[in-house]
Amino acid sequence: MNVKCFDENHEKDLEMKINAFLNSTNSDIIDIKYQVAIAMQGEDQIFCFSAMVIYYDKE
Known about the structure:
Elements: E1 2-8, H1 11-24, E2 27-41, E3 44-57
Antiparallel strand pairs: 1-3, 2-3
């Protein structure tokens, strides 16, 4: 069993990275854990979109 972690500032970037990984692997996907963190820096909101893909290599 393996995991791959993704971390992006924009949700669309996270989607693209995960989709690229899913399309490039010949693995059984067990689960995907998704999380959003929000922080304030001055008056700016900073978002962190992350996901962990849990998978099993068929090879």
